[in-house]
């Protein structure tokens, strides 16, 4: 009895605290042993961690604060013949040593080694500050119907790749795939961190063109550029208008693009092709609807087909008006005219989360940011764009998450709705499950995440390295009068038409 009464309220409280501490300790041990390869682990960490930022504006704010006084002085390039030859000899010595190393798998050994140019601030930090200090003022300043700040955000791949490359290695998840090197002779590739989209939209036309000319001179004066004529240089030109006035002079570089256009309006013949360039996804405008969200919204997806956007576009996007005429007032179809402001974003997100299928027709170019909004919303894309090229298609199979319809079929009376109504419930569920799985491949973030778009960019880039070295070597030894260097210009365009030769 004496022992029983010795447990005072104070001692009980102490025992309670100790018990809670022990339970928390045990839970921590088990949590630390959880497999990081588990999809549920990745999703919870990726979506809920306060250390991962998926917002361009928020991430930029933190980046600029941490580089508040960062200024890169103007340094003139020195690409005279002697320096270029010295660099070439240094690269050969390193490659030769790797080639004969029994433990090496040269020329595609990982991690990929990237030299990031330290360009003058007017091409990098000054432009980021310009956006940061003015994006609120440009919210309603539209270009071709969309908010300027949103166009910059959806084409901000140059920012996401750059901030990952220059981050401390201890903070990077992709260091086994790609690393930044300090010596040019050690590099597989060279990254040009010029923010072409920001300069295009936020500078006056003549000021922008002058900056483009300055950037062109700076880039082409570099010894590494002269050595390869830019073939091993990565040039982010993700908006189809960016760098347009001078990009014909850098057409041998690896361009990071949203798509490829065959009309000649955006890219001239011979400037872009899949063997050389890389297609990267737009930054999604909508919030992620993950597997749990998809499950919760399943019963609310009562709309068969949804589309919200500009109903009339130029060039390849002219099909939109035909589709609108065919689908307007059809049962189970919602067609809305709208742009990408805050109200439009909310309406698009609500509409996509209430729909089974989302129509994705070509815009002014074959691609559309709407595709990636549909993917992260769990809405099955119905792609009507005959010459569309897709990001990371060497890795991802888009047939598992989308339906592809030719323009010829889509505009036939009542054809498209009949086709969609004939898609079975089992196939719909499989497509939706794959959307939840694939969505992480399109979410740019800082720090960059494994299997995110930055990761897949470098996986695709690794596949280009041997071809880059091949064409660089050929260009260095070709003599006057020899046959022209192969540029892969002669190719059959991508098309979903039944007869590609028609």
How would you describe this structure to a colleague?
By secondary structure, the protein is α/β, with parallel strands linked by helices. Helices cover 41% and strands 10% of the residues. The chain has helices at 2-5, 9-32, 39-48, 56-66, 81-99, 125-134, 148-154, 157-165, 196-202, 205-220, 223-228, 291-297, 319-327, 342-353, 370-377, 407-410, 415-421, 425-438, 453-462, 465-477, and strands at residues 112-116, 142-143, 146-147, 178-180, 189-191, 233-236, 254-257, 278-279, 303-309, 333-337, 355-361, 380-384, 403-404. The strands form three sheets. The chain has a six-stranded parallel sheet with strand order 4-1-5-6-7-8. Strands 10-9-11-12-13 form a five-stranded parallel sheet, with helices on both faces. β2 (142-143) and β3 (146-147) form a beta hairpin. α4 (56-66) crosses α6 and α9 (196-202) runs antiparallel to α10. The protein is globular. The N and C termini lie far apart (98 Å).
| Cα end-to-end separation | 98 Å
Number of helices: 20
What is the C-alpha radius of gyration, as a whole number of Å?
A: 26 Å
Largest sheet, order of strands side by side? 4-1-5-6-7-8
Could you name the ranges where pLDDT drops below 50 across 5 or more consecutive residues?
1-7, 12-18, 20-50, 488-502
Summarize the structure.
With 502 residues, the protein is an alpha/beta fold. It is built from 20 helices and 13 strands.
List the helices and strands and how they pair.
Blueprint: H1 2-5, H2 9-32, H3 39-48, H4 56-66, H5 81-99, E1 112-116, H6 125-134, E2 142-143, E3 146-147, H7 148-154, H8 157-165, E4 178-180, E5 189-191, H9 196-202, H10 205-220, H11 223-228, E6 233-236, E7 254-257, E8 278-279, H12 291-297, E9 303-309, H13 319-327, E10 333-337, H14 342-353, E11 355-361, H15 370-377, E12 380-384, E13 403-404, H16 407-410, H17 415-421, H18 425-438, H19 453-462, H20 465-477
Parallel strand pairs: 1-4, 1-5, 5-6, 6-7, 7-8, 9-10, 9-11, 11-12, 12-13
Antiparallel strand pairs: 2-3
